[in-house]
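Hi W.,

Here's what went into the run:
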Amino acid sequence: MGAIRLEKVKKTFGTLDVIPGVDLDINDGEFVVFVGPSGCGKSTLLRLIAGLEDVTDGKILINGVDVANEAPAKRGLSMVFQSYALYPHMTVYNNIAFGLKMAGESKAVIDEKVQNAAKILNLTDYLERRPGALSGGQRQRVAIGRAIVRNPAAFLFDEPLSNLDAALRVNMRLEITGLHQELKTTMIYVTHDQVEAMTMADKIVVLQAGRVEQVGKPMDLYNNPANKFVAGFIGSPKMNFIGGDYAKKHDCHEIGIRPEHVAVSTESGDLPATVKIAEHLGAETYLHVNAGGFGPMTVRATGEVPLGEHDKIWLTPEQDRIHRFDANGIALGKL
Amino acid sequence: MSTRSSTLTGRIMSAPSIIALFLWMIVPLGMTIYFSFLRYNLLSPGMEEWVGTLNYEFFLTDPAFFASLANTLLLVGSVLVITVIGGVLLGLMLDQPIFGRGILRLLVIAPFFIMPTVNALVWKNLLMHPVSGMFAWIANSLGFQSIDWFSEAPLTAIIIMVSWQWLPFAVLILLTALQSLDRDQKEAAQMDGAGPVSIFFYITLPHLSRAITVVVLIETIFLLTVFAEIFVTTGGGPGLATTNIAFLVYTQALLQYDVGGASAGGIVAVVLANIVAIFLIRLIGKNLDR
Amino acid sequence: MENKQTPLGHIGFSIFAWIVGLLIFFPIFWMVLTSFKTELEAVSIPPSFISFDWTLENYAEVQARSDYFRFAMNSVILSVGSTLVGLLFAVPCAWAMAFNPTKRTKDALLWMLSTKMMPPVGVLVPIYLVFRDWGLLDTRFGLIMVLFLMNLPIMVWMLYTYFKEIPSDILEAARMDGATLPKEIIFVLLPMAVPGIASTMLLNIILAWNEAFWTLNLTTADAAPLTAFIASYSSPEGLFWSKLSAASTLAVAPILIIGWFSQKQLVRGLTFGAVK
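Here's what came out:
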């Protein structure tokens, strides 16, 4: 069981409000991703839940019990660190067993749990090695193994994939998702990478400057961003924002349109544009264009598109995919 | 990592060291300052009385003070010049690929680990003795008159001994700094057409400037209070020729039992050392922020 | 620069470097050599380099005449003792400063450093008087305290710079794993800090062994270490160079060996982390 509830959680460092006050509900078994640009307070929020930092004010309820003043170990949570934070002087076995030893478990119980975790994570052959002799992905798995054996109420992940190379990152992403499906334990996952957020989360919490901008399912955030910040942050390449007359036509201050929601034609369309750079990826093509009075835009066309520098094209945004924002960047809903 | 309990534990854990150091330095320093305003001689106990700044007036107008101040500055200055220039040259030398470089480096830094009393007596007797010393023999075999170092050039002799002791310190630190110099930088300079001399002045020396500053400051602090080398060789003489401030304070305190005068001298030494210390602490403090 | 050297230039430079190195090392070499000579050969002109009767007599006599062993024991007790006491104080302090820094940590560190800048003559008088009044003059306990306090700032600093290199993540992981503070320090921090602690200890042993202000001023006989023992040779009686050399060789040999082993780590301690 691991339902976590934050009530008016506040954190200040000196006079600096890092987290001005967050309310959040995390259901048992949910995979929640905190996402935001660096410095948005997502890691601090995670560390507050872990107990590695004191809350300045507010309550942290785990299964209904306020743990805001408990030591980290008493909260029944496990954490996987960005740097893995393995104990370099211990073998893989002892790394995984350390928490159980601290809890005073018997040797037999420890051995059973460690072997079991090692099997799940494909680490059985490496148990006698030291972390220094492992690859990045293996270290990551040891860190996860250390978290698993304690049967925590919830797992906390602090940007766990950011030290891995791109190919390994995709693999580990799938492994962690698989692990969640198998264990069905609550997981809170911090990342600055919106792709990780979109692909892994049951629920995404978008943070900026310590405030929650929006909470919701990945596709909700994609389709119905609450404001310009969320709209720009979720989705890649980034949403295009267009102000001026074209926005006025839609009765708003600014409109946003995702690159994948603009049709490209060489003959006709709403907006004339000139290609500046075309990035050919094979399955799709990113066109960085100059759209006359609207300034630079990015457009995504599927498949191979035979366009290059200086080519003149026409763009037509899909009308029902246009997001409208007021002067404060708040979404106005679709027309 | 800042939780209330950890901050508190931190305080408790660091308190013993801080309190111990406080008792060791600040309290005696306060006593020294207090004594420096007293007429206080160990030979006439119970006669202590407040004399204001009289001890300072005596100490600072004593010809012995000027002589020892001059000796202190001469000693510190000469040793600094010798060790820094020698340290840079030896550092550059040891940074080159040499046969048996590791062993050679051990030989060069060895003097630093020799205790000061051994250093002084070995130099005084085995090397600088006017009749049987190595230097006398070399001078005689080359047809020169041998020098009686400790009566003809006593301060020079002390300077040589102290320099020999501290040269390895400079080498060790400057060599470490040299080895941290990015090879790419040198190679980029070579690509830009810089010769060895320009590389030294435009790349190596600026890179070393920090380390040199550290060497100068730390050596100054230790050299201001050179004691054992003087104590076992010349005893400050002949006359006052090798008395530095530290030794002068020592003679006043433990040979003449003039606590008041020695305290005033001690405070003068503290002030001199602090002028240097302020710069060193600033430098290290800046380093701490990085 | 070096890769342009010709093989011949390389050899020439090596020879030059070795001559310079041997010249610097010569006083030590000469001291060791003299310790194996008879007193007569020691003062003979021209000096004899190899062609003399090697003898171990001086070493035997140093012990017989002046009870060398007792001074050596004092040196060991003082340097090791002050280092161990120092660790006891410095490890918790450095831990707190490295992992639980507060706004005042930096000031505290710099203040500690500043006490090291204080010339010992500035506090000689009160320390001497306090030692005299408390009966600490010429006691090992008194000197251990002095040497420990003298080197405490260096110990804290050195350990601090080593602890700073240990990622705090790892200690937090231990905390998440349920380790209490003592367990966190014993099972996680200390094993990782062993190299740093070892070099801190070595530097302190070297500094305490060679310390020659307080050991000369606060001891007379009972607690006197080798620095004072050697200093007693400054008032010679008869021929004594070989014996002085033998005694000196014995006094510096252990520290020279320790120093050679730890030379790389010493730089950090000696410069308070300003040069690494």
